[in-house]
Amino acid sequence: xxNFTSVNEVANPNKLVQQVLDIKQNTSYPKVGENKSLALIFxxxxxRTRMSTQKAAQNIGMDVTMxxxxxxxxxxxxxxxxxxxxxxxxxxxxxxQIISGYCDLMGVRTFANLQNRHKDYEEEVLSKFLxxxxxxxxxxxxxIRHPLQSLADLTTIAESKIQKPKVVLSWVPHPKKLPxxxxxxxxxxxxxxxxxxxxxxxxxxxxxxxxxxxxxxxNNQKKALKNADFIYAKNWSSYSNYGQTPEVAQNWVITAxxxxxxxxxxxxxxxxxxxxxxxxxEVIDNSLVYQQAKNREHAAQAVLQNIVEAL
Length: 311
Ligand code: CP
Prior knowledge:
311 residues, alpha/beta, Rossmann fold, 2 domains, five-stranded parallel beta sheet, four-stranded parallel beta sheet, 13 helices, 11 strands, binds phosphoric acid mono(formamide)ester, Asp/Orn_carbamoylTrfase, EC 2.1.3.11, ornithine carbamoyltransferase activity, transferase
């Protein structure tokens, strides 16, 4: 493995999930990261990704540096050829080349801005890191994908040992406009497993066909939840009416009553979660969300180990 920005860079996703499970079983980790350094660059806030990736790196002996772009450094210019006489002081081309000179591996978090679909789906910022970095890049969530989250999610599902689990990805309400990254990524990873996946969302919240091709889609949440083993809840804004949040008449909150439609299904969410907006307290308190969050550490460690060993 060189970069880790989507499932497409992983030769065998199921083998990688098994590696994550093996790491979780062992507490004596190989110090393959000794004398190597990891720079974690955040354009957006984070709790889990930041702490789990730092912990994973430390588990294998790596040194970690973190930077919050908004708070810690100059305003970054992304456009080529710009006369930089305004508010930006450092060009992304210069910043990435310089940061990659200080580390052996770089992680970057850069959310969709939800203003321009073309720029987001072309991965405007991540692609510049890939272009200008001289070291491997790990996505800590990009405009359209969140692969470390998806790897932890698949690991969590695999831990149940259910053969051919029925998994439902359900759109849920949220007061803010959110990107499609977690949902896109979950779909492109889950189709690599033996799971039977169904996507449910209100009309107007269709995801990009790039991620939903061949996946059964229902606009009837209750029908979709029937007999599900896992209910993965996530909000996203509209792809077709990009970044907008068309009104939804029906109630899409996950409640205990809705969970009862499932096959004693387990509730999953990437977190952070707005309680009693996305799902009820009762649902969240009886869910897999902490297991998912813990698996973020083991997933990050597997990815770091593979990349460091290939350096
Ligand atoms: N799930 C997740 O990526 O959490 P953070 O945004 O807190 O990192």
